[in-house]
Amino acid sequence: MKFEWRKQEKELYLPKTKPVEIEVPEQKFYTLSGQGDPNGQQFSEEVSALYAMSYGIRMSAKKGLIGKEPFEYTVYPLEGIWTLSDEAVAAGRAFDKADLVYKIMIRQPDFVTEEIALANLDQVAKKKANPNNQNIKFEAIEDGKCVQMLHVGPYSEEGNTFEVMERYCGEKQLSRKTFAHREIYLSDVRKVAPEKMKTVLRYSVK
To answer: Which Gene3D superfamilies does the protein's record reference (predicted)?
Structure first.
């Protein structure tokens, strides 16, 4: 049976359009870190590199080349952790996409070990050249206690959803651990109209 994260892990990836609290366990990712406006060519190439590596794992698993037996699954969605540069925060500058600091990532199945992940990096890099291949890392990340909510609409209107989440945290006496937040992209920007795009917004709380 094919593993579908949309069906088996709804709690993590398909929240409602209202805030909820969730405990996010440790997960394994291919990651790439960067800074600047995500609308440029550099960011697009970084995303392509992550997907190439992730599909390399998927195909090897499907053929039974890794893991204990053949395993078919849907590649996890692109995610990103976003914040602002220390310089921008210290200077109190108005929001500028050039000041964004990010770590984009795609989750990998639990059976993927560091050895498997690094071997796949080498194999895919030989077939699909990308200047970002050498910067991809394999990391385990645990978000812990979080508040998350589904945002429907363009990225430029995420502020409205964050306001709803902030009010929820105030009512529940929760506070953000850091200024950074996570976004999980459920829609393909090439195929979905901006007003219909779905993005999970999440941040760690205490």
So the answer is: Regulatory factor, effector binding domain (3.20.80.10)
Measured distance CA(139)–CA(31) in Å, rounded: 7
- Please choose, from the candidates 103, 101, 110, 109, the residue with its C-alpha nearest in 3D space to the C-alpha of residue 137: 103
pLDDT at 178: 94
Per the structure, the count of domains in the chain is 1
What's the CATH number where 118 sits?
3.20.80.10
Enclosing domain of residue 63: 5-204
Neighbouring residues of 11: CB distance < 8 A, sequence distance ≥ 6: 22
Beta strands in 53-188 (DSSP E): 78-84, 100-108, 137-152, 181-185
Interval 131-170: pLDDT, tens: 999 999 999 999 999 999 999 999 999 999 999 999 999 9
Place of tokens 């204990």: 68
